[in-house]
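look at this fold:
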Amino acid sequence: MKLEQRLLAVAPWLLAISAVARTWVIVTGFGNESIDLYVYWSLAPHVLEGDLYQVTSPHSPPDFPLPFTYPPFGALVFLPMTWMFWGLAQWSFRLLSVLCLYWIVRVTLRLIAGERWTTDARLWRQRAILWTAVLLWMMPVFHTFEFGQINLVLAAVVLAAMVARDQRVAGAGIGLTAGVKLVPAISGLYFLATRRWAAAVWSIVAFAASVGLGFLVDFNQAKQYWFVLFGDPDRVGPVATAHNQSLRGALSRTFGYDVGPSWPWLIAAVAAVVLAGFALRAAVRAGDALIGVVTVQFLGLLLSPISWDHHWVWVAPLLIWLVYTRIATWARITLLVLWCPVMFWDVIAFQLRRQPTIWTISRPGWLSAVGWAYPALALVTLVVIAVALAGTMRIRSTDLKDTVRPMNTVG
């Protein structure tokens, strides 16, 4: 690939240019406020004062006072950041997020490369720099920086944990990230699918420890979260706003009301589970750890009541996998053609400019159709993965030398 060779030669420069350009856009626009990061920074100390869930961010938008929406353990994790003044905390977190993006790319490429990671190390490390530069322009990544969200940090920890050799490290990583933000708990399905029973047990133990620590710090506060606030998506945000790219959000925009856990959502959820089951089984049989991880994360994003568009940073490993993994050409082209325009053009901003308020549910049919962008493509992706990997296994059953690295072999 001559074009790639030319780009790899200037990859560090491209990364520097991308970082500077993206930083300029963020600091001169909405992103300069890092509105979600300010919630973590300003409200986390209240976990020690017992009123964490009674206060809201002083930098909230006028139509939505922003509360702290994570478990008490999440606030405890953010406490060290609150010891810095705001500017230092903001820029330190941005730098950490860039490093986590590079880490995600690096682990993704290492899983794809397998033994080639060591035999042609320079090439793959150059690719890691190049892909980091490219992915800074992917909308979920950009919006993560714009809002000051924790998606890249959590995704980096989850990916590292799910492919770790040590069962205790793998399980503890997932359990503790689930303790910060509940959605990573879906990762336990991957452990079950790959029969990593010890990792699954350790994830439960670590999650229970995180919950217990919250009760230890303030029993009534933890009780309020787990028995009153838990499961209330309206507190997290407006279910039907364009930012919410879960099945529930898409269905609510289509039906014109919050569908909740009613029959439309149940049918869609069952369909998502079935499709993810087929895709995960195909990934396990193919020994493809990376796409197994991505499949499980997609399922979690689909089933969660609220999956903001910036939660979909898991599309990044998928795009890299599509470029370098040997799968059927039709599958590669189909998914790249579908995902790239949605990921690198701000389809979310397009919808936001056309909704009266973030609380408005009903909208024109064509606009509600556009609002299916992420969940619809995720469902298509699960189908394509299941079919393409099954076909690849049949064709290459006698030649496994160049497959992606087997499960549980990444140190």
About this structure: The CA atoms of residues 163 and 408 lie 6 Å apart.
